[in-house]
Amino acid sequence: MARMRIHHCCLALALAVAAAAGDGRGSFATTVLPRTGPQDAPIQDLLALYATPAGRADYQMTCVSSNPPVSEVSFLSPFTSPHGENNAVWCRYYQAAAPGRHPAVIMLHHAEGANVLEDFISRKLAADGVPALLVQLPYYGKRRPADPALRDVMKQVDLEMAIKIVRQGILDVHRAKDWLRSRPEVDGARVSVAGISLGALAAATAAGVDPDFWRVALVLGGGDVTGILSSDLPGVKRTRDGYLKKAGSVDEMRERLRCAEPLTFARRIPRGTVMMINAKQDDHIPVGCTMKLWKALGEPPIHWYDTTHVGAAVHLFDIVDILSAFLGGQSEGSTLTSILREMGGGGK
After folding, report:
1. Mean pLDDT over residues 312-339, rounded?
2. What is the average pLDDT across 240-260?
3. So what's the pLDDT on residue 152?
4. Is 207 a member of any domain?
5. How far is 61 from 63, CA to CA, in rounded Å?
6. How many Cβ atoms sit within 10 Å of the Cβ of residue 61?
7. Is residue 22, in this structure, part of any structural domain at all?
8. Of 71, 127, 171, 191, which one's alpha carbon is 20 to 30 angstroms from that of 242?
9. What is the biggest distance separating any 2 CA atoms in the chain, rounded to whole angstroms?
10. Higher-confidence residue: 7 or 237?
11. Are 242 and 207 in contact (CB under 8 A)?
12. What is the mean pLDDT of residues 334-345?
């Protein structure tokens, strides 16, 4: 009998911890996209590609770590692709440990999709008081098709499929924003979006289609996707060769990619909400393409590092501090040592 009481007490404690960490299912309100005005008439047909109605969506949340509080979150994408696995959006939610309502951010990852870098940044932001929702973009991570013949679908895409993937990713970011705004610990008026490399391109496009983000942080990004793909930089050679072969010409590629181009929607992003971090020797994103986006965004603050695209990782701690301050974190956040230990498994 005593052993049974102990078991019941342990079960009750486990359930309490799970509830505090956010285990469970629920639903949240989804909002209309996009909101447009008369000034959007020249791109109305492109914005219409992202139209989604208001309603409600279900989500599932499972605790991954209680100290620090990290959960896996999933919900259905507003866009239905041909591959079932890709239609569930998977996210990691890094919750601020301190009580109260906080500014929050959607974090979008780079093209390799391993997310180790973004995991570190998200943990640091949450430790500084900025909850972070790391969203897996379409066909990454758990969103890859189970069929072995389709596992490398991202390497097989043509322009039409690429455009659909971008559309789905932007709609997923909008739904992720609605989910964050539904959280009691999040200040719904201060939800930002941030991205690294590919994630920066996606974040810039998402913020243009949905200019309701509090702040926009773009790390190692740029504009003129066609200019990036048709450049002679070594970092984009494989992608460039594949797309040019299928597009026919650079001009055709540029016209067809207008609906997936950050420059198309940049003027919709409110001035004073953007910050950029870039590399002077970037071998993936031409500096000229970075400058095109910078000008289209109204010449926001930009931090330059004299390094290559991948070499910017040397400045990671400095970059994280800049992001934390910009996105609303406190300067006296948790130590980098503790975050590194947690990432290694010590925080579980």
Report:
1. 76
2. 79
3. 66
4. yes
5. 7
6. 20
7. no
8. 171
9. 78
10. 237
11. no
12. 49
What is d(CA 345, CA 348) in angstroms, rounded to the nearest whole number?
6
Tokens of 107: 């974090």
pLDDT in tens, 57-71: 999 999 999 988 999
User: Is residue 7 one of the residues assigned to a domain?
Assistant: no
How many C-beta atoms lie closer than 10 Å to residue 120's C-beta? 18
Residue 72 sits in a domain whose CATH number is: 3.40.50.1820
Sign of CA dihedral 207, 208, 213, 216: positive
Q: Is the pLDDT of residue 346 over 70?
A: no
How many domains in the chain? 1
Q: What is the pLDDT of residues 201-219, one digit of tens each?
A: 999 999 999 999 999 999 9
Distances (CA, A) of 327 to 33, 122, 190: 24, 12, 9
Q: How far is CA 44 from CA 38, 49, 223, 233, 290, in A?
A: 9, 9, 20, 34, 25
Question: 94 forms bridges with which residues in the sheet?
Answer: 70, 132
Domain range for 127 = 42-346
Which residue stretches of the chain are H helix? 2-21, 44-47, 116-127, 159-181, 198-209, 225-229, 237-247, 250-256, 262-265, 287-296, 316-327, 336-341
pLDDT in the model for residue 9? 39
Per DSSP, the three-state class of 339 is helix
Query: What integer is the mean pLDDT of 298-323?
Result: 96
Residue 194 tokens, joined = 């941030």
Lookup result for tokens 């100290």? 67
Per-residue confidence (pLDDT) for residue 253, from 0 to 100: 85
Please name the amino acid found at residue 70: V
Residue 20 domain-assigned (yes or no): no
